[in-house]
Amino acid sequence: MQNINDLFDVFPRSGRVEWIGIRTERRAPVTVVSSIDVSEKKGLLGDHYSGQSGNRHVTLIQAEHLPVVAAMTGRDTLDPALVRRNIVVSGVNLLALKDHSIQLGDVTLMITGQCHPCSKMETILGAGGYNAMRGHSGMTAKVLKGGTIQVGDEVVVLAKELISTT
Q1: How many CB atoms within 10 Å of residue 40?
Q2: 94, exposed or middle or buried, with CB in 10 Å at 0-12, 13-18, 19+?
Q3: Segment 62-115, tens digit of pLDDT
Q4: Disulfide check for 81: which of 30, 69, 139, 153 has CB 3.0–4.6 Å away?
């Protein structure tokens, strides 16, 4: 029988990058891209957060949460651009990845914390949008190794002993 602490490092499968979006400046609309270059020092190149807080270089949200938020806000679907996160992934539980490193393409990220919704969600999604996003708004990440992320890339949770560059 496994110890409960050991279970924190067991993930059933890898995930997939489904969508990538950036904003070139604050309050600008989200631009959907098929790939993005990523730097350890600047984060997502071309995004308005580039070069700012290292713990929030990248924001991620689970694709599985978008239909939940859509249902809570009375929508049939929810365009990922509306929630203003950088990367939508499927197949992995992002919340369970806090303090774990993941690889997307040739980029390595450390999941640093929750990406809480902002008050803009009330305006963008309508009354109750802020509360609909609570618990479903994704995670923040720091770039440990730069490179390129593309839609379709596998999302692999890295074993802690394999992360020697941190």
Answers
A1: 16
A2: buried
A3: 999 999 999 999 999 999 999 999 999 999 999 999 999 999 999 999 999 999
A4: 30
Q: Which residues contact 53 (CB under 8 A, 6 or more apart)?
A: none
Alpha helices in 34-128 (DSSP H): 66-72, 80-83, 120-125
- The 3-state DSSP composition of the chain as helix, strand, coil percent (nearest 5) reads 25, 35, 45
Rounded to two decimals, what is the model's pTM? Answer: 0.91
Which pair of tokens denotes residue 159?
Answer: 């074993």
First to last CA, the chain: 31
Look at residue 83 and give its three-state secondary structure. Answer: helix
Residue 17 · residue 104 · CB < 8 Å: yes
In the block, residue with structure tokens 């979006």: 21
Per the CB < 8 A criterion, the answer to whether 69 and 135 are in contact is: no
**In the block, residue with structure tokens 């990220």:** 109
- pLDDT tens digit string along 59-72? 999 999 999 999 99
What span, in angstroms and rounded, lies between the C-alpha atoms of 70 and 140?
22
42 contacts 142 by C-beta, under 8 angstroms: no
Domain ranges in the chain are 4-147
* CATH 3.40.190.10 matches 4-147: no
